[in-house]
Design goal:
- The chain has a domain at about 115-365: 4-Layer Sandwich (Penicillin V Acylase, Chain A), CATH 3.60.60.10.
- By secondary structure, the protein is an alpha+beta fold.
- It contains 13 helices and 14 strands.
């Protein structure tokens, strides 16, 4: 590989850390105030994306706002506290509430045409680590324009466990760890049974409040969900699950061999029955198989070995470390905008802002 392929962005500063606490409205307002430029920028990016992709999606920003309002009552009925977080983010950033809601329902209102098909998640428990710690990793792949909007949020809700999570722009945080030893990584999957219901980002945000593995599973399977992710759920005990979810179905895969991996296609035969256009997910299958092979090669993983997997370039540019070099299609320009390794035992996130092959990892602690 070249030393810096395709002028991959290099971040000289660590990922910004935002500390928030209090009610859900107050936490949202604090995020909005601290990340005002990032929230505004993410809305601008979403507007531009819909403009560029109009021929494929036939959806304007105004139309997306109208569609997103259909999902709001379902979220308000089941999870009003996270609607309050969105409302607070709008107040703090000065962005209209409707636009924050639209950002958080974008996958749904575009009927998943915004394929987030290159994220990679994996985990190893104490059977497979050198120090007996529980480790997990996630490469977050999304549009390169949103890379500047990444941040870490350290939250102390008044009525839920403290958590440490990654987010960007005006999105609800959802990939992270909490003080009860629950970790969640999410990967988009593409079922054909999506419907109007609770937006999947709201569902994923709820999982960060789980106190046990069973809590996390129940929260991810809330009734009237609009669709689903794969939730790679890890507990401090070493329990690991891939919960593959759609609007109406789910299947639960269990980590028997001390490691698990997931990308953007369904692994369960039951869920493959409702997968939409599986032939478009070939790069996801390549990454999944590659991650599994690399995980199997060591019985004693460390933070460094997981970071090495995150930097892998087999099948470049659609590799685990993904680089946006494939043409001008606005719906096919994802890259790795950050890479995280989690030490659940130590309650730490180690994050490289941007492609991990070119950026350093910095450490953040869930210090209660």
């Amino acid at each position: 590989m070249p030393q810096n392929p395709y002028n991959t962005p290099v971040h000289k500063q660590p990922t910004p850390l935002i500390r928030v606490s209090g009610s859900h409205l107050e936490m949202g307002r604090q995020i909005g105030e601290a990340c005002r430029e990032k929230v505004v920028h993410s809305v601008e990016n979403a507007r531009v994306l819909l403009d560029e992709a109009y021929e494929q999606l036939e959806l304007t920003w105004a139309g997306a706002q109208i569609q997103s309002r259909k999902y709001l009552p379902f979220a308000e009925e089941r999870y009003p506290q996270y609607v309050e977080e969105m409302r607070g983010m709008a107040e703090g950033s000065g962005v209209p509430f409707d636009e924050i809601v639209t950002l958080n329902t974008m996958e749904a209102v575009t009927t998943d045409a915004l394929h987030l098909t290159r994220c990679t998640s994996f985990a190893v428990n104490d059977e497979r680590t050198a120090d007996g710690h529980i480790l997990a990793a996630h490469n977050e792949d999304w549009l390169p324009e949103d890379e500047e909007d990444v941040y870490i949020v350290h939250a102390k809700p008044a009525d839920e466990p403290p958590f440490l999570a990654m987010s960007y722009g005006g999105l609800l945080p959802n990939i992270g760890i909490n003080a009860h030893g629950v970790l969640q990584l999410i990967d988009s999957v593409y079922p054909n049974d999506s419907r109007i219901g609770i937006p999947r980002l709201v569902v994923a945000r709820a999982v960060l409040a789980a106190k046990t593995p069973a809590d996390a599973l129940r929260m991810a399977l809330v009734p009237h969900r609009a669709a689903g992710y794969n939730h790679l759920l890890v507990h401090e005990s070493g329990e690991m699950y891939s919960l593959e979810v759609s609007a109406r179905r789910f299947d639960l895969l269990y980590g028997l061999d001390g490691y698990m991996a997931h990308t953007n296609h369904y692994i369960s035969v039951k869920m493959q029955e409702i997968e939409d256009e599986p032939e478009t997910l070939i790069s996801s299958r390549v990454r999944y198989l590659r991650a599994n092979r690399l995980l199997r090669q060591s019985q004693t993983h460390t933070l460094k070995t997981l970071q090495t997997i995150q930097k892998d370039h087999v099948n470049f540019s659609n590799s685990i470390c993904n680089h946006a070099v494939d043409g001008a299609d606005p719906l096919d320009r994802e890259k790795t905008i950050n890479a995280m390794v989690f030490d659940l035992t130590a309650r730490e996130i180690h994050i490289a802002w941007g492609n991990p092959c070119q950026n350093f990892y910095h450490t953040y602690h869930l210090d209660e």
